[in-house]
């Protein structure tokens, strides 16, 4: 493949990632949320949470943020399949979807993206554990925000994702979140 074809393949992948800005996190529809966050919105905050958790846990914040950034990129092709749907559907492995997504990209891009997704899906390092906790903690925080908006069924998501947290720092942050308003951060300016 020529450099021009690799450039187009890499750009195709980047354009495909733009679809994540429009794709909704469909699991929230089960909780009655009419206009849930997008996959990109979820992934952004997951990456920030991941970096913070990594700092608290002594892991590599940049690596965790990278793992979190790419953790749901396959959903451009398979959608956001809620856990209840996974019982009835057999989706391709994220590693296989990623391989298809970057098949025409520059070889270094293809290898790099595939390695990140492979590590997130199959690794057992502290960084992977922290990245998985960041994903769950973001879901829990989003659930708290939906509870504040009146979506009572989001409580199940808050409880179930909190119960899956593994690191002490994630549990500590989850406990703090449950006693706070999502607008708490701005109170410092109102004093």
From TrEMBL:
This is 5'-deoxynucleotidase. The keyword Hydrolase applies. It catalyses: a 2'-deoxyribonucleoside 5'-phosphate + H2O = a 2'-deoxyribonucleoside + phosphate. Transmembrane segments: none annotated. It is an enzyme of class 3 (hydrolase). Coiled coil: none annotated. Residues 35-149 form the HD/PDEase domain.
């Amino acid at each position: 493949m020529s450099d021009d074809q690799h450039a187009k393949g890499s750009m195709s992948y980047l354009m495909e990632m733009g679809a994540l800005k429009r794709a909704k996190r469909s699991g929230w529809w089960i909780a009655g949320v009419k206009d849930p966050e997008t996959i990109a919105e979820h992934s952004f905050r997951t990456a920030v949470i991941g970096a913070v958790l990594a700092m608290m846990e002594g892991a590599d914040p940049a690596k965790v943020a990278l793992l979190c950034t790419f953790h749901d990129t396959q959903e451009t092709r398979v959608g956001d399949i809620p856990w209840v749907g996974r019982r009835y559907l057999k989706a391709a492995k994220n590693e296989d979807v990623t391989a298809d997504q970057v098949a025409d990209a520059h070889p270094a891009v293809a290898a790099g993206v595939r390695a990140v997704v492979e590590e997130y899906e199959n690794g057992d390092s502290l960084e992977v554990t922290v990245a998985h906790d960041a994903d769950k903690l973001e879901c829990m925080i989003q659930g708290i925000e939906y509870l504040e908006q009146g979506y009572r069924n989001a409580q199940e998501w808050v409880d179930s994702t909190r119960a899956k947290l593994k690191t002490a720092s994630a549990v500590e942050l989850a406990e703090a979140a449950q006693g706070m308003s999502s607008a708490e951060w701005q109170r410092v300016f109102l004093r």
